Amino acid sequence: MSATRSLVYAPNWVGDTVMALPVLAALAAAGRAVDVLARPHLVPLVGLAAGAAGALSRGDDRTTLAAMRAGGYDEAVLLPNSFRSAWLARRAGIPRRFGYRGGFRGPLLAPAVPRAGGAVRHQTADYAELLAAMGVPSPEDWTPRLALGATERERGRQLLARAGIDPAAGPVVGVFPGAEFGASKRWPREHFADAMRELRRRHRDLQLSILAGPKEVWLAVRLHEETGKIHPVIGPDLDLGELAAVLAAHRALLTNDSGPMHLAAALGVHCAALFGPTDPARTAPSGAGHEVLYGHRWCSPCFRRRCPLGHHRCMTDLPATAAVAAVEAGL
Fold first, then answer.
1. Residue 229 resides in a domain
2. What's the domain range around 214?
3. For residue 39, which of 16, 57, 157, 230 sits 20 to 30 Å off, Cα-Cα?
């Protein structure tokens, strides 16, 4: 008897996709043959997931539907709560379509699964009811994990060498000053610069990298200039698979609540994570040993892209000294 063919419709964001990795592992452990439908920039990340047999790139609706139909899938697992994901799965003729009800998409699902209420839980466990509806045991540990092979790790060392960094010469600490969600999630650039200078003062053998995606180049370059133009900017020209390979060679990452934060945590890299407008109870880096600095004020978490009060104190009040100590906990 052939294995059930499952198509997992991945979330849209890097961090959300990383936090969904335990779902792929649980499906694979239950004997499913799992393919993942993801946005093009997420496909290299999906290729690293142990539970994924294959990856489909989401294009326009016509192309995506053709790929979904060609796969002959027995079931679809719809992780986004969007109407579009349910509509595409229904149009593709996939007989079983597991997704949370809401947003007028209930009639498109088979079945429409109710979401559990109650206490706030970490986002990694958001899909527990979907797995239960499928008869798939939930993982004992919801911590996302990525294991890179020797080839990927060597690629990471090569990319670091291109930037003038050798992990054998001393611990490598990354700094990620961006956050695609919006300015409210970003710790002030000046604070990052202060923390970097203090880390270098305390640890002479420390090597610092400034990590950035294509949309954060301006921010990374400013930080590079403000810290003496000695710390390389890495990442704008890398895909997510290459970024994972680079991160795997780091000892620690000082970061805002972001996709690279979750990617680093899944690779076992110590994260010193800065939170203000978002809730660490929901999206803190998964796993043991990470340090979370939370600017918990009366107005946080507000989940707004920009501070509606204009002062942004949930982030600006987080001191560089605390960030340095949080990084040092992983050295």
1. yes
2. 153-328
3. 157
